Structure formats: C-alpha cells, structure tokens
Amino acid sequence: MNIEDISGTHIVNNIAELEAVLNRRHLGDVNAFWLATESGGFPTLMVLVKECLAVLHYLPTADEPGLRSLGENQDGEIMHFSISPSSADDVQEPSDAIVTLDAAWQAAKEFFDSRTLPQSIRWKEL
Known about the structure:
Shape: globular
Number of domains: 1
Largest sheet: 8 strands, antiparallel
Number of strands: 10
C-alpha cells in the first residue's frame, strides 16, 4: 500500500510498517496521510492528525465526494488540520467529524486489510 504524508511517499507491506508510518509527526504533532493501493489511486483513505485527534475522509473514486468520519462532538466548532508544511494549506474540519486517534488507527488497519470503507467508523456522506 502507498501512503503519502506531509514528508513524502512511503510503501508499506504489513501492519507493522503501516503503524510505523502512521506514527510519524511533523510541524508540532500533526500529519496528513493518504492511503491507497497505488499512488494517486482509489479508493483512498485520508487521515488528518492533530495531537490525539483525527478526521478521516474516504474517497471511493475520483468522481465521488466520498464520506467523512462522524464523531461524538456536536459543539459546532471548527478545527484546523495541516495537510502540508505551509499553514496556508490548512483545512478546516467541523467538530462533529473528529474521532480519537485510536479510532483512526483502527480504521486505517481495516482499510489496509480490506481496501474498502472501514466499518469501525461512523460516516457521513458528503
């Protein structure tokens, strides 16, 4: 599986390698991961990480808007997540999309094994 993050592209062949890449942090405990079977391929699972929080996006094809994680927080606040070394590229995510880092890692492992929508996360269609 190919994983692209803020620092570049990584090829992982097993869960241990997946965990090692997903534990990388940049720019003050943040990272953004795009997991796909091939570089630029679909389906893709995007995992945005900030400290102990995460937001996931699942893109089944290039032509569909996909799905976003649905967390427990409903306070309506917006949180910024980095997707590159430049803060100008930060994306805003609503608080109801935020899940724990443990939940995000479980979903990433499911995606690694199945290459399909992880069932351990609740999703909202976009």
